[in-house]
Amino acid sequence: MPPNKVRFSPTVSRSHTPPRSPSPTSSNPSILYNTDDDPDSDDDDSLHRSLLPTTARLPVRRRRRLGKQNVCMRFGMTVLLAAALLGLGVLFGVIFWENEEGIVDDGILVDAPRGAVSSDVLACSRIGVGLLKKGGNAVDAAIGTAVCIGVVNSFASGIGGGGFMVVREGNGRSQAYNFRETAPGSASRDMYSADPLGARVGGLAVAIPGEVHGYATAHARSGRIPWQDIWQPSIDLARRGFHIPPTLAAIIAKEAPFFQQHREEWGFLFNQDTGELLQVGELMKRESYARTLEVIAGKGEYSRGGVYSGVKQFYNGSIAEQIVEAANKHGGILTTEDFSRYFTVVEDTLKTSFCGRQVITCPPPCSGAVLIEGLNIAERLDMGDPDKSISYHYLVETMKWISAGRTELGDPADPVVASNSERIHQLQSKSYAEAVRANISADTTYSWEHYNPAYEPVDPKGTSHLSVLDNDGNAVALTTTVNLYWGAKVHDPQTGIVLNSEMDDFSIPGRSNAYRLEPSVYNYIIPRKRPLSSTTPTIIIEEDGAPGLVIGGSGGSRIVTGVFQAIVKNYLWGYGLLDTIKSPRLHHQLIPEVVTAESGTEKWILEGLEERGHVVEQRGIGEASGGSVIQVVKGMASGRVEAVADWWRKGGCGRRRGHFFYSVPFSTAVDRTGLIAFFREPPGIELNAYQCDKPAGVG
């Protein structure tokens, strides 16, 4: 099925109220996995388009493999084990407590009866929960949470960027939304040959933002509550201000010389009383951004043109004109026509089966295709026992094949990429995984040539992911980005928008990327093309048709390997959700030929890799994974929902007035009667004047 190009018509009704999705039931065949629809069946027609000290880390306690022959953990047996442990008051190696509404919370992992939101920012997860309380669904909550993240973590996300969203509705329908940024109409393949830095900093690095368009498209198709209601909490937050979390403060400080040199443009980062850059715990307000969000929400004078009249201002009106002016002031080549021609691609998700479950993820230029490749390979390897060193060797070998596969991905709208579509389909097939299996040795690794990469694409940095699962079985995995931290380092004071540097995600002929890797011919620039992305928003459907893992991450090329490891650990190795995320990670991206291992990786694992010829570098938690951060929620067979936010890698506490502070991504859960957030201080940590983000239940 070809993708849909979605634009907005002035005739969209303001009173649009999409139907409520039915709750999933085992009697509804539409939500059961049908192997006849599996694009991995080789049917060509089926392809669719730390800050934390080491002492803060918790020990990992694995659940042992059940059964000698089946490499995949059986879901029902896992739940029985979890239930037995919960009865003892101990689950996944940590002590739990349960409140009167049925929420179980240990301050890190949340277990709740009805649903959950997991994101980078406490305040934003609370906004997502508030939207669920108002009667919204997972799509509404995901959009509201993401808009908020753009307010707080403007270095990584915001309406000046774009992203990908995978939606799986309770009725079994799934869709992928591609609102990736596009190259300007006057962009060309060799536009950065004379000045490669121009792809990273300044107006020439800016691509056409897609985030607003993507959210409006998803809301028009699947949202439940009014468009304005989704945006209002973030408008209020931007206007009243929020206290600077340590992660944001550290990233501001890292770029202090630049911001001080461009103080007039970046005034919102400065304390208006002292004239200094904002510090941890100080109040940041974003008044101009709040006004822009009001326009997009269709408030005030923009309420008369229909539900999405403000979206039209972004792509066909005053906001588009202002962004063009701001970017071109810094050397950009944007035009208002570039904005008016933007569209969101809505298409079928990619699918495969893994351990008896259905995996749904996003098509290219997202990297979901190579996640499928990796899972297909893993299923064919004897790597089901996490207590054997060969399992980690196979894990790394699969990562190398994943990385090689990524070199052949790109935007299918590019004729060069389209001509390679048969190969992309092959990468996702079970038969290809069998062929790869024959080329993986149990005893040794090989040099990069063995894995037959075409080229190597560039990798993004400033990214944010969130996962949502609601009580009606609707699930959303959403990843957004402005690429590098602070995007192109272009901020428009009038609109408050931080503009992306997405042009750096294209491959530039003759220039290696930040990892000293060769560029990909499939990712060269052409006008209005969307650059390759490492993002991998993914949803796994359990054997009974109900949503299971809702997962994704940030961190460039580490996203795919991080998500891949999490799925292997949870479904193949039987880790609980908490240990799945916090356990030390490995990473290999083929070139350079080094395995990076996080501190805490056991010695026998490292030795087993070295004995097979791997070069291993051990680095700090988060450093080895490149800051790859995984946000995840999971629907359990019991009907409850668990949520974990990966604060081990993105978070940390700064020190202020002699006290430690956490900057911890926040998961929040929905119980059957209400949504009242509660917070508990982590043991051994003193909080003073600043509440750090951390997981919490809602009751």
UniProtKB/TrEMBL annotation:
<dbReference type="GO" id="GO:0036374">
    <property type="term" value="F:glutathione hydrolase activity"/>
</dbReference>
<dbReference type="GO" id="GO:0005886">
    <property type="term" value="C:plasma membrane"/>
</dbReference>
<dbReference type="InterPro" id="IPR043138">
    <property type="entry name" value="GGT_lsub"/>
</dbReference>
<dbReference type="InterPro" id="IPR000101">
    <property type="entry name" value="GGT_peptidase"/>
</dbReference>
<feature type="active site" description="Nucleophile">
    <location>
        <position position="463"/>
    </location>
</feature>
<feature type="binding site">
    <location>
        <position position="556"/>
    </location>
    <ligand>
        <name>L-glutamate</name>
    </ligand>
</feature>
<dbReference type="GO" id="GO:0103068">
    <property type="term" value="F:leukotriene C4 gamma-glutamyl transferase activity"/>
</dbReference>
<feature type="binding site">
    <location>
        <begin position="481"/>
        <end position="483"/>
    </location>
    <ligand>
        <name>L-glutamate</name>
    </ligand>
</feature>
<keyword id="KW-0472">Membrane</keyword>
<dbReference type="InterPro" id="IPR043137">
    <property type="entry name" value="GGT_ssub_C"/>
</dbReference>
<feature type="binding site">
    <location>
        <begin position="533"/>
        <end position="534"/>
    </location>
    <ligand>
        <name>L-glutamate</name>
    </ligand>
</feature>
<keyword id="KW-0808">Transferase</keyword>
<comment type="pathway">
    <text>Sulfur metabolism; glutathione metabolism.</text>
</comment>
<keyword id="KW-0378">Hydrolase</keyword>
<keyword id="KW-1133">Transmembrane helix</keyword>
<dbReference type="Pfam" id="PF01019">
    <property type="entry name" value="G_glu_transpept"/>
</dbReference>
<dbReference type="GO" id="GO:0006751">
    <property type="term" value="P:glutathione catabolic process"/>
</dbReference>
<feature type="compositionally biased region" description="Low complexity">
    <location>
        <begin position="9"/>
        <end position="30"/>
    </location>
</feature>
<comment type="similarity">
    <text>Belongs to the gamma-glutamyltransferase family.</text>
</comment>
<protein>
    <recommendedName>
        <fullName>Glutathione hydrolase</fullName>
        <ecNumber>2.3.2.2</ecNumber>
        <ecNumber>3.4.19.13</ecNumber>
    </recommendedName>
</protein>
<feature type="binding site">
    <location>
        <position position="180"/>
    </location>
    <ligand>
        <name>L-glutamate</name>
    </ligand>
</feature>
<feature type="region of interest" description="Disordered">
    <location>
        <begin position="1"/>
        <end position="49"/>
    </location>
</feature>
<dbReference type="InterPro" id="IPR029055">
    <property type="entry name" value="Ntn_hydrolases_N"/>
</dbReference>
<feature type="compositionally biased region" description="Acidic residues">
    <location>
        <begin position="35"/>
        <end position="45"/>
    </location>
</feature>
<comment type="function">
    <text>Cleaves the gamma-glutamyl peptide bond of glutathione and glutathione conjugates.</text>
</comment>
<feature type="binding site">
    <location>
        <position position="505"/>
    </location>
    <ligand>
        <name>L-glutamate</name>
    </ligand>
</feature>
<dbReference type="GO" id="GO:0000324">
    <property type="term" value="C:fungal-type vacuole"/>
</dbReference>
<feature type="transmembrane region" description="Helical">
    <location>
        <begin position="71"/>
        <end position="97"/>
    </location>
</feature>
<keyword id="KW-0812">Transmembrane</keyword>
<keyword id="KW-0012">Acyltransferase</keyword>
